[in-house]
Amino acid sequence: MARTGRPREFDRDKALNAAMTLFWAQGYEPTSLTQLKSCMGNISPTSFYAAFGSKEALFREVVQHYLATYGQVMSPLWDENLIPRDAIERTLRGSARMQATRTHPCGCLVVSGASNCSPENEAVQALLAAERQRTRTGIRVCVERAIARGELRDCATTAALPDIFATFFHGMTCEARDGMTSTHLDAAITSLLTLWDANALLTTP
Amino acid sequence: MARTGRPREFDRDKALNAAMTLFWAQGYEPTSLTQLKSCMGNISPTSFYAAFGSKEALFREVVQHYLATYGQVMSPLWDENLIPRDAIERTLRGSARMQATRTHPCGCLVVSGASNCSPENEAVQALLAAERQRTRTGIRVCVERAIARGELRDCATTAALPDIFATFFHGMTCEARDGMTSTHLDAAITSLLTLWDANALLTTP
DNA sequence: AGATTTTCATATTAAGTGATCCAGAAGTAA
DNA sequence: TTACTTCTGGATCACTTAATATGAAAATCT
Predict the structure, then answer these.
(1) Among all strands, which nt has the closest C1' to B56 (CA)?
(2) Local structure of B200: helix, strand or coil
(3) In terms of Cα–Cα distance, which of B25, B3, B205 is closest to B105?
(4) For the whole model, what pTM was predicted?
(5) B105-140 pLDDT per residue, tens
(6) Is B38's Cβ below 8 Å from some Cβ in A?
(7) Is A5 within 7 A of strand C by CB distance?
């Protein structure tokens, strides 16, 4: 990108990662420019704005970076090569493990990154809301695919499965942040999936 | 309380309710004193501090008020006269209906009231975290009581039930705020409870 | 009445907010 | 070298934050 001129003295990727950690832990609004600049390597305001544009632009970049890395635990949802049940199980277990890992802030950035917002930052809130909606759609598509493939009965219980999984999925953020371990979440997922199996249809091998 | 002196010109209860609505919608930190004073009836800073002490003191009072009113949807959890399954079902359905009602902000204040916090407001965050822990305990006690009463099998699946219900319960806040209707939540609860029934023991009538 | 108590409106505080300006430093390109 | 581009540090911007100070207004109590 910058082929000429004075080279940047700080590592942009490291700074982005540090910002992600801070936003992840505190959320968008409570995180101040002062905190950000500090954790990004004591960079100056000028350097900050030259490199990232604004606080909101940085947050949007952080979200993209999060989705491309930690957020990939949800990629099974969109993998049509996987059996639907497998896709959902992998997503839930992968998210549980990721969200409860203590090497970074707990919970999911998309769920808790901008949950408290004043009216002037509605756009930031909407950004994450849209991403959550995408997840719900992915879950629903998986369940519908399972029904279409004859792996799941088409009944009232299975019709509610997408909402159950989505609610449980988003609830994990609260639990992980409150200290629930990956082991506990995993056990809960195991039990929750018996709800799927109780409505599964036998497929001839 | 105030028997003598100039009487207060604004309605303290109405002001508290208005503050609750604002905190409920935006969360603790993004809600400014200016917004609060405005929605509480354009009261002056002096009146505000005389009546409520500080922003944090007001929030604590708001939480108590919330627990004493809207938060009562969880009271079945502590009602030992109820059959455990009934206690949990009433709590879930009552919360779902309350959280999705549009006459006030969606979701649960205890879950979303201080989810984004800077370090200096950890105490506020801890206040709500403690309340959520109380809920988890209530759910767990219900399940354990059901097992002790012989209404639920004592197995791995039922051991995970408290965590499932708690995670789902806290997840409802995210769903309700994102627009999920009471009807959808209710249907999800119905299906989720089949997980209980699948592990229920027959009680001789 | 007059003393006391409490609330009110206005102005103001110090600190923090996100964001910009400017002069100089440190590179590349001719 | 000289011209050009980009980054850095520090000062500063206008604005908002939560919280106070001051003095007058409005009630009760003696």
Answers:
(1) D18
(2) strand
(3) B25
(4) 0.96
(5) 999 999 999 999 999 999 999 999 999 999 999 999
(6) no
(7) yes
